[in-house]
Amino acid sequence: MAERLNEWEGTNFVTDPAWGDNGKGKVVDLMAQRAAMVVRVNGGPNAGHTVKNERGEFKFHLMPSGIFNPQAISVLADTVVVNPSILSKEITELRKAGIEVTENNLLISRNAHLIMPWHRRRDNLREVARGGEKIGTTGQGIGPTYADRTERVGLKVGHLLRSDFNEMFDRELAWQEKLARSMSNSDTPQYDREQILRNLEEAREVIAPMITEVLPVIWEYHDAGKRVLGEAGQGVLLDLDRGGYPYVTSSHPGIAGFNLATGIPPREVERVIAVTKAYTTRVGEGPLPTEQDNELGNQIRSLGNEYGATTGRPRRVGWLDLPTVNYGLRVGGATSLALTKIDVFDGLPEIKICVGHRVGNREYKRLPQADVEFMRTIEPVYETLSGWDSDTTEARSFEELPTNAQRFIETVQRHLEVPIEMVSVGPEREPSIYL
User: How far apart are CA 282 and CA 391, in angstroms?
Assistant: First the structure.
């Protein structure tokens, strides 16, 4: 690479090659200190990310991590879906922590769609109806909001500023009431109109100054050669089209999602950094080929604090699955990788890495398809390494790592399709090793 992650130039994009929750928050927070603009490109409050820095620990669901850089503009793009109450709460909490959030450093796309109470209701009702085949959604109304967007009936953030918003709201509420009553077999009102409007008005007062047309601003910064950083939510294995359908999200976490959000073609992106942990996790249903549903999995979950930032649900845990990562690297357009949480393995006597997928008589080094039925037939092929007893969290160079930790990284690199350029050995911004 021409420069380290903390010395980057041009337009960069951070994604996740697997199922999300792999440490993008730390990498984006690190890179955002150098950014002129940080753009959140997809998803909504289903994508929780945790940032630990000198200001404390923050758990965000909508706010771009660039908000901690007073010199950067943070942007919620057209392709994000916004719960206005959650966003206004995050803004208020940041202000209480002494962090400035104004129209000078946060732009909210007027074209982003609003998550409404009926979206969350439909989300949860659909999960109940699925029974044993539930997807495991966060219940935040993401899918139904994107569905209304596709049907061209959704309300947008910019509509909050219109003088006829209440009329628009009432037209949509009338339809949603009919739908809700038919599903509940009830003639009584299913939504409290006045309460919803009060909540929207409270949120509008906070976010109104920041609502604008964001695409021209993104282009202005990119065309001027300023440092623009894109931030994905979730991971490529949850991509609507390239993930393990139906156990997916409703947007695009890879380079295609960055293009949709910013209008910047992939050829004009300096690099795409994929972030993955030294092991695999997943929230929700669907195949996880290397899953360790045992005491070892419980131990790694506890050491890594693997609980969802959005739902609090314990994440499913497995060994690092490199064929699946290689699939996510290819589909997500990654040019390099950041490896996080190797410090979680401190003290483990033995570590396994999945280096192949055996299906029938064939062995794959890259997952050939994310088809759910195919993934359920995978037999992981492992390489077993000795662990290390010493603490990795103080290491600041490859040579300072324990010998077996070095071997672990070298083994991962040997089976990856892109170079590793950073190894994280702690949750804060600075415990990082650049390769």
Answer: 26
pLDDT at 315: 95
| Shared domain check, 381 and 419 | yes
Cα-atom radius of gyration of the chain, to the nearest Å?
22
Q: What is the spatial distance between Cα 211 and Cα 103, in angstroms, rounded to a whole number?
A: 8
Six token digits for residue 72 = 């950067």
pTM over 0.90, yes/no: yes
Average pLDDT over residues 409-413: 98
The residue segments making up the domain with residue 25 are 9-107+213-434
Where is the binding site, in residues?
21, 46-50, 138, 152, 234, 249, 309-315, 341-343, 424-426
151 with 170, same domain: the answer is yes
Pairing of strands 350-359, 379-386: antiparallel
The verdict on 187 and 87 lying in the same domain is no
Q: Say whether pLDDT at 54 is over 80.
A: no
Measuring CA to CA, which residue among 136, 131, 62 is closest to residue 94? 62
Same domain for 427 and 321 = yes
> What distance in Å separates the CA atoms of residue 156 and residue 218, rounded to the nearest whole number?
20
Say whether 223 is catalytic: no
Identify the active-site residue in 16, 29, 49, 113. Answer: 49
215 pLDDT higher than 70: yes
- Is it the case that residue 55 has pLDDT exceeding 90? no
CA 61 – CA 189 distance, rounded (Å): 30
**Residue that has been written with the tokens 């360790």 in this structure:** 292
